[in-house]
Amino acid sequence: MRQPLIAGNWKMNGTRSSAEALIKGVLEGAEKLGKAEIAICPPFPFLEAGERLVANSSVRLGGQNVCTEASGAYTGEVSAAMLAEFGCSYVICGHSERREYYGETDAIVAKKLAIVVENGMKPILCVGETLDQREQGKTQEVIAQQIDAVIAQNGIASFAELEIAYEPIWAIGTGKTATPEQAQEVHDFIRQRIAGQDQAIGAKVRILYGGSMKPGNASDLLSQPDIDGGLIGGAALAAEDFLAICRAGEAAAG
Ligand SMILES: O=C(CO)COP(=O)(O)O
C-alpha cells in the first residue's frame, strides 16, 4: 500500500505575510489528518519561515528547483545542501515550466535528481506531454523517453528514492484536467515501464498527478489505482482548497 502524498507547488506566488498565513492555515487543517503525507513547496525566500512554522508538525517542506552543482560560482542558483539545511524533505525536479522556460533537458533533470538524493532528500520527478504530442498520439513515447533518460543516467535503483509526478502540460493552470481514466492510463504506463526493469521498485514508486487538481475532482483522480497523490499548483494557494484535496487523499488511503 502506497501512502498518498499531496504536495503543494506554490510556484512564484505570494508575499512573506501571505506565505506565513498560508502555511499556518495548512498546519491547522493538517493536524486533523494522518493517513496522507502533506508537503508544501514555497518559493525559496519563504523556506526559512516554512522551516520555523512546520517544525514539530507532520507537514513536510520542499523546494521547487535545485542546482545541478554542489557549490561554487553559479550566480542565482540554490544548492541541494542549502535546501536540506532549511528543512526540505522534497525537491521538485524537471517541472515542465523549468523544462520549457529554462531549457532543462532530461540530462540536467537526472543530475538534479542525483544531487537531491545525495543530500538526503526525495526528488519529485515531473514528466508530461504537450497537447500537440497528445493529439499526435505520442503521449507514451514522450513519457517513456523522459523516464528512460533517468534510468539510463542514474540507474533503475534511483527510482526507489524518488517520487514521480505525471503532469500533462495541457492541464497545468488551464482548468482542463485529465479525466481519471486518461491519468490512470499514463500512471499505469509509467509504473509498467519501471516494473519492466525492476518489479519491486515499480510496485513501490509513488506516482502523483498534477494539472488543475481541485477539491471538486481530487477524489475521482485519487481513487484510481495508480494515482498515489497530487502535485497541486493553483489550488495549493488557498489553505481550504489544499486541505480539501488532502482530505480526499486521506479518504483514498482508506
Ligand atoms: O504544475 C502544477 C503543479 O506542479 C499544476 O498546476 P495547477 O494545479 O495550477 O494546474
From TrEMBL:
Its EC number is 5.3.1.1. Transmembrane segments: none annotated. PANTHER family: TRIOSEPHOSPHATE ISOMERASE. Involved in the gluconeogenesis. Catalyzes stereospecifically the conversion of dihydroxyacetone phosphate (DHAP) to D-glyceraldehyde-3-phosphate (G3P). It comes from the Bacteria. The active site is at H95 (electrophile), E167 (proton acceptor). It catalyses: D-glyceraldehyde 3-phosphate = dihydroxyacetone phosphate. GO terms for cellular component: cytosol. Pathway: Carbohydrate metabolism; erythritol degradation; Carbohydrate degradation; glycolysis; D-glyceraldehyde 3-phosphate from glycerone phosphate: step 1/1; Carbohydrate biosynthesis; gluconeogenesis. Keywords: Cytoplasm, Gluconeogenesis, Glycolysis, Isomerase. GO terms for molecular function: triose-phosphate isomerase activity. One of its GO terms (biological process) is glycolytic process. Belongs to the triosephosphate isomerase family. The gene is tpiA. Pfam families: TIM. This is Triosephosphate isomerase. Substrate binds at N9, W10, K11, G173, S212, G233, G234. InterPro entries: Aldolase_TIM, TIM_sf, TrioseP_Isoase_bac/euk, Triosephosphate_isomerase, Triosephosphate_isomerase_AS. It is found in: Cytoplasm. Homodimer. The keyword Cytoplasm applies.
